[in-house]
Amino acid sequence: MKARKPSGIETDSAGRTDDIAVARRVLAFEAQGLQALGAGLGDAFVRALDLLAGATGRAVITGIGKSGHVARKIAATLASTGTPSFFVHPAEASHGDLGMIAPGDAVIALSNSGGSAELTDIVAYTRRFAIPLVAITSRATSALAEAADATLVLPRADEACPMGLAPTTSTTMMLALGDAIAVALMERKRFTPGDFHALHPGGQLGRRLRLVSDLMHGADELPVARPDTPMSEVLIEMSAKRFGCVGIVDAAGKLAGIITDGDLRRHMSPDMLEAPAAAVMTANPRSIRPNALAAEALRLMNGGAGEQPVTVLFVVAEGRPVGILHIHDCLRAGEA
Q1: How many whole angstroms separate alpha carbon 10 and alpha carbon 30?
Q2: What domains are defined for the chain?
Q3: How confident is the model at residue 57 (pLDDT cuts 50, 70, 90)?
Q4: Alpha helices, H only, the chain
Q5: Does the pLDDT at position 14 exceed 50?
Q6: What is the Cα–Cα distance from 327 to 330, expressed in whole angstroms?
Q7: Rounded Cα distance, 275 and 267, in Å
Q8: Distance from C-alpha of 155 to C-alpha of 42, rounded to nearest angstrom
Q9: For residues 92 and 95, what is the distance between their CA atoms, to the nearest angstrom?
């Protein structure tokens, strides 16, 4: 289906095309192309995902010219969302870089016309060694489309260039289709925020996705005591570890309660030092998993409706404390 040309180009009194109107026209052309692209998705898209998800190796993305620039971005997006991927320049592939493509890989080839001569060798290589090939092209009857195992055909849509020549709408559709593939694969693989953090450790994004295990103090710094420990010894442990609390662990080593400065004030009495820890502790304290995001830990510390804020969380795995996290650890990591 051919996209309709947007209308309403504005001009000023001198007859010059209004800059904002041109920009809006370009965006309108490209938006129409994206709408047509989404409407036309079907079994071929699912087939392409099956091929890519079934690859035991990497996704190899290739293209020449503007399609090549788009291919580089698609490769980067796939790699950062859990699908190992890299770009191979088709001309370099013909001069030895075909050796970068191995059994178990899958190839995505981009060509608007589907007839780019530079892709010939890489396409032939995939056919010779039974490497899955996904084509992204505007021509369903092109050589590339006919050779591919799955072909994603871009809908007919006018380029935004006034001459209808410069790749604009077509490359936008390719780019968006690459994003759609990456996100669909990401969801198939149940890619988690923790997985995302592992691939994005730097910058603001990395800080936002820090895990509790990245920030917590380890087992050697844990302030812990048994339920029958006298409070006189609990106070020594609390002072030595300097977190303002002590975790109370049962005979199985599981976290049963916590004693904080607030608990000491609430139970202050002449005989408190002789009392066992179990008599003073608050049972079932808030805790966090090691693989939880630091942002989740901060939310738990701030408390919800009817909950008092806390400054410390014990980090537990299978009920046993393996670390401790203070609110200052989150603040130093930029979580607030």
Answers
A1: 19
A2: 19-191 (3.40.50.10490), 212-332 (3.10.580.10)
A3: very high
A4: 19-40, 43-54, 66-80, 90-93, 120-128, 143-147, 169-188, 193-199, 203-208, 212-215, 231-241, 261-266, 277-280, 294-302, 327-332
A5: no
A6: 5
A7: 10
A8: 13
A9: 5
